[in-house]
Each structure stands twice: as C-alpha cells, then as structure tokens.
Amino acid sequence: MGEIESEYSGSGPTVVVLGDSIADQSRRELHRVLDPHYRTKIAAVWGEGFDSGPLSDAVAEGRAVMLEAAAEYARDTPTTVVIALGTNDAWNPRLELDAAEAGMAQMVGEFPRSCIVGVEVNEWSKAENYDASEARALNEQLRVLVDVVVPALQRSDVSDDMIHPKAEGKMVFARAVRSGVQQCR
C-alpha cells in the first residue's frame, strides 16, 4: 500500500519525495541513487492522487493523505521536493481534474523556499479508465508550478498495465528523479 517515511536516510541536502505507486515501487532505487548525496525521505502511497484516493477515503472523508504528508514534510523546509503524483488522478474516474489541480497548487504552495521537481504523468497510456486529456492538463499545470520537470516513464519502461515500471524501469525512474534533483543546485 505504500509508506510515509518519518526519518531521513543518507546525508547531504534534504530531499523529500511525494509520490504514488510508481514512486513506491521505485523506493529502493530512489534511496540507492539519492542517499549517497542527499538526506532523503519518501511518502509514496498506492492509489493516492493530489487530492484523494482510497487511503484518504478509508482514513476519513475529506482528508487528503498526500496533502497531509506534504504539510508534514514542509515543516523540515527541505532543499528539494520531488512531486511524482497525478497518475491516479488521470486513471481513477472518481478523482476529478479540478480537485487534482487545486491539490497540486496547494502542495507546491507548502514549499515556498524549496526547489520543486515535478515528474510528468504519462499521456499515452491505454489502461482502462485512463484519461490522457486529464494527464495532459495535469502536466500543463505542473510545468507552470514547478522549477524542474522530469519526463514520465516511456512505454518501454513500464509493465503490461501501461502504468507501473518494469524492474529496469524502476531504476530509469530513480535516475530521472536524481537528474531533476541535481538540476536544483
């Protein structure tokens, strides 16, 4: 289901990652490429979007788990924030674009003194219920709000579900995130 880490690992400038199942599946690889140079903490939860998701619904109606994680992580004033959310907003028909866009703006607003790296949502998926037009809209807003943009995984990097990374795609994702973080210097 994911995890919201409470402790940093590694050493150096602080980096927090706010993500969904793609980030959670790549958690080990993210720590492997980031921890040697950064103090890293990851909040990545399956099914969650910018505003809501199944865990948010289970915890209590009206609570947004990832927005709460962002507010908690913002207390540390991290040097860099990586936002790797939006796939579930485009994939789950119950999650609405307006709420996702508002959640994205709120999340970015939590970190006024941090460099923000945004990971794009793939716009090509043919997964059932996936809305590529919502993915495009989220990417457009992301490009306006963040300091550095990291492209979404390519088709060759994802599994047959057209969303989640293959084994080698996890490292591709982690290296792309590291590249974005390095651009924040």
What does this structure look like?
This protein is of the alpha/beta class. It has one domain: 3-Layer(aba) Sandwich (Rossmann fold). The chain has eight helices and seven strands. It has helices spanning 21-25, 27-34, 54-59, 65-74, 87-91, 97-109, 132-145, 167-182, and strands at 2-4, 9-10, 14-19, 39-45, 80-84, 115-119, 148-150. α2 (27-34) crosses α8 (167-182) and α6 packs parallel to α7 (132-145). It is globular, with a radius of gyration of 15 Å.
List the helices and strands and how they pair.
Elements: E1 2-4, E2 9-10, E3 14-19, H1 21-25, H2 27-34, E4 39-45, H3 54-59, H4 65-74, E5 80-84, H5 87-91, H6 97-109, E6 115-119, H7 132-145, E7 148-150, H8 167-182
Parallel strand pairs: 3-4, 3-5, 5-6, 6-7
Antiparallel strand pairs: 1-4, 2-4
Helix pairs in contact: 2-8, 6-7
CATH fold assignment = Rossmann fold
Helix content: 40-55%
Roughly what is the average pLDDT, rounded to an integer?
93
Percent of residues in beta strands: 15-25%
- What Rg do the Cα atoms give? 15 Å
In the CATH hierarchy, the architecture is: 3-Layer(aba) Sandwich
Count of β-strands:
7
Number of helical stretches of at least 4 residues: 8
Query: CATH superfamily, called what?
Result: SGNH hydrolase
Global morphology: globular
- Name the CATH class: Alpha Beta
Structural class, judged by helices and strands?
alpha/beta
How many structural domains in the coordinates? 1
